[in-house]
C-alpha cells in the first residue's frame, strides 16, 4: 500500500524538515538533491509518489537563488512522478520584501517568485509570516499563511507581564505589534522611522510611553539588524528599563551579530524558519525557538482536510 503522505526536504533547512517528520511520525522522503560540477541542480525522487500528498520543506533563505531553484526543480520532479498533490512548505519566503514598486522601473519580485512556483506545478503553498499579507494574492492557488506568534508568545508569556510595552519598529508593523500587545495585555508604542536606502533606517520619533518599562520590539524579520539596533537604542534613550526583541525570521546577515552584541538589546528571540549559522547559535543574546510543531500540525491538517485558521484562535 502506498503512503498517503510524504515529506521531502531540500538542502536549505533539513534539520527543521526532520523535526517536522518526527512530529508527524513519518520518515523523511527519499530524494537526492545534488549538483553537477558546474553548480547545476539535479534532483532524483527515489521512492514511488504516484497519488501521494507530497510536502516539500524548503526555506528560500541564503543562498536565496540556489534554494529557490532547488525548490522549483523538486516540484517539477514530483509533478513528473505523478504526485497526487504538491505542497510547498516555505517557512521563510525569500523576495517577500519586493512586494510592490517602491521606485520607478523596479520589479515586483515577490510576484515573479509566485509565478515561478505556480508554473513549476505546485498545488498549495504554506508560509510563515510573509513580509506583506497581500503576497497571498500573487498566487492563483491556495496559500496557508501561518504566524510565528503562538511559538513566540508561549515564551513571552513566561517572561513578561502586562507592565511591558510592545514596540512596532515602523508604521507598517503596527497591526502585528497590536496583536502581540492584545494577547500579552501590554501597551503599544510605535517608532517613526525613515529609510533613505535599502538596509538603512533612521529613527525620528517614538509614539507611546516606554519609560521605566520592559520594551519588546516585534518584527517579522531581522536581516542586518540595523533597524532593530537603532530602535533598541532609541527606546533606551526614552527611558525604558530594558529592551528585548522578537522576530519570526532571523536572517541575520553580516554584520548583524556584531551589531546585536554592541547594542543595548538584552535578548533577541527568533525561530528556526531560517537555519541558524554557528555564530548565531553561539551568540549569548540570541534565543532560537522551533516552529517544527506548528508546521507539523499544519501538515497534518492539510493532509486530513482540517482547518488551519483554528491554530491561531
Task: Sum up the structure in keywords.
313 residues, 14 strands, 5-stranded parallel beta sheet
Describe the fold and architecture.
By secondary structure, the chain is α/β, with parallel strands linked by helices. Helix content is 31%, strand content 28%. It has nine helices and 14 strands. The chain has helices at residues 14-24, 64-80, 109-120, 149-159, 174-184, 226-237, 256-262, 278-281, 292-304; strands spanning 5-9, 31-35, 41-45, 53-57, 85-90, 124-128, 143-146, 165-168, 187-197, 200-207, 214-222, 242-250, 265-271, 286-289. The protein has a seven-stranded mixed beta sheet, with helices on both faces. The longest helix is centred in the N-terminal third of the chain and has 17 residues, at 64-80. The model has no long low-confidence stretch (mean pLDDT 93).
Brief account:
The chain is α/β, with parallel strands linked by helices. The protein is built from nine helices and 14 strands. The strands form three sheets. Strands 10-9-8-11-12-13-14 form a seven-stranded mixed beta sheet, with helices on both faces. A five-stranded parallel beta sheet has the order 1-4-5-6-7, with helices on both faces. A two-stranded antiparallel sheet has the order 2-3.
Give the N-terminus to C-terminus distance in angstroms.
Answer: 37 Å
Number of strands: 14
Q: Which radius of gyration do the C-alpha atoms yield? A: 20 Å
Number of alpha- plus pi-helical segments: 9
Structural class: alpha/beta
Can you write the helix and strand succession as a string? EHEEEHEHEEHEHEEEHEHEHEH
Helical percent range?
A: 25-40%
Mean pLDDT score: 93
In what order do the strands lie side by side in the largest sheet? Answer: 10-9-8-11-12-13-14
Biggest sheet architecture = 7 strands, mixed
Q: What percentage of the residues does DSSP assign to strands (E)?
A: 25-35%
The poorly predicted ranges are none
Q: Please state the overall shape, judged from the principal axes of the Cα atoms.
A: globular
